[in-house]
Model the fold of this input.
Amino acid sequence: MARGAIFLAVSILKIDRNSRCSACPIRHRAVCAYCEDDELIRLDAIKSYRTYAPGESIVMAGDQVDKIGSIVSGVATLSRTLADGRRQMVGLLLPSDFVGRPGRAEAPFDVVAATETTLCLFQKDQFDKMIKATPPLERRLLDMTLDELDSAREWMLLLGRKTAREKIASLLAIMVRRDAALNKETPRDGMRFVLPLTREAMADYLGLTIETVSRQISALKKEGVIILEDARHIRVPDFVKLLDQAGDDADGGFIA
Amino acid sequence: MARGAIFLAVSILKIDRNSRCSACPIRHRAVCAYCEDDELIRLDAIKSYRTYAPGESIVMAGDQVDKIGSIVSGVATLSRTLADGRRQMVGLLLPSDFVGRPGRAEAPFDVVAATETTLCLFQKDQFDKMIKATPPLERRLLDMTLDELDSAREWMLLLGRKTAREKIASLLAIMVRRDAALNKETPRDGMRFVLPLTREAMADYLGLTIETVSRQISALKKEGVIILEDARHIRVPDFVKLLDQAGDDADGGFIA
DNA sequence: GCAGTTATTTGATCTTGATCAAGGCCAATA
DNA sequence: TATTGGCCTTGATCAAGATCAAATAACTGC
Done:
């Protein structure tokens, strides 16, 4: 019996940044990411556009939601908090990811803006209708949801079985890979990257405390695996040495 | 950049046990679980039928697979093992769940029979074709995959933030709920149920060691939260008392 | 029922990571 | 310049759970 709703953290559409949305300051159109021929699908149902400050709550677990939001810019987190304050992050939402799940009304997780985050909001029923009317989109959505499930399970391995050291190293390796992929290159030694997360966010992501995160990062630095320019800027002199610390990290990870 | 394949652990079709599959000793037809009017969809592509012994490996992570299997009977586990032997279970496959993911060839997780398990195997390309030709099925599949993702994230909370005590209690509560749901009732006090998992499987599921699992179960017994008839048969005198131990357990869990 | 194997429980000890506490760094503000 | 507050680091101590070890208990094929 599956219960509750779920939040999509999948991108089914790519934002075309060259054009501006008719309803938003930034005009954008949704480009079908499925079709190789770049078939355009117009989203007429755009209702509003909103920016959230860092730390601002976008939806809370249990909320009734009647909109679906597409992240235009910024980073948001998907998490759940226990009654006594323990929190676990279960996903990261990046530009082009969606907030809200087609078909369900209740939010199962908290969504919080990590950086300044801008959402373009659609009326859910109209959005659903568009999806339903576009089989390739639906197929694409299924595909990406399966990938997401894949990643979530990969993360379960990390949470359940990896040591603090391995967790940190895995996260850093993922960050490096992601940065490299953005530039369409493979991770090379000496790469420098920015940590988009606070120590607290990392801790919530990895199922650790901030102190442990800090200590492990310091230890990796002392051992020369990483070079800390400052708390948020890291250089990786030898990518393989970092991977060695990550346990296994077969081929990727959660952020993807 | 999603990488690797993924294994479906979702049921899109219900097995109609009253009829027998043309290719199998047990003749079964796939009943579309989406359509309320029980529209039948014939699976012509049945190629083979196979039974696995408890503990037998069905697929290994990294295998190339060209078939999709539907679990007819038994329980199988979905897990990943690190080089040094640490293992994390990431899902449980029950009858009507599928082994194998449409569209991808490489298995990302190990699938192992927990009990004697019978699979009905379809040629993947034919199976894919059928799915593609049946939009309601595809929609249903999406829906169930989203539920699965939901559950996986719920489990991440358990793995990352719950104590051993809470993990065990959560698992037991899920089992009780599942048993009750099978009989279409709500959990009532005094319910007795069978643990379908070994201590080792529970440990792998919860990210613990078998010793910790055993100790926590003993402790719960000593405190009167559960009554152990033997290692595998448990009675729950007071369901609320069990839930109290589970941390939060908002409304469900992973097996579902 | 018996030997041999596997699953489970229990105990003693050790390790990892949590907790408690203090201080440093830096940017924004008075 | 001093102050405040957010974020990060570091140290000391503690406890939850892992590890090592051994003793039942249950289950197998015979």
Observations:
- Residues 198-200, 210-211, 214-215, 217-218, 231 of chain B lie near DNA strand C (CB under 10 Å from a C1').
- Residues 1-45 of chain B have pLDDT under 50 and may be disordered.
- The domain at 162-244 of chain B is CATH 1.10.10.10 (Arc Repressor Mutant, subunit A).
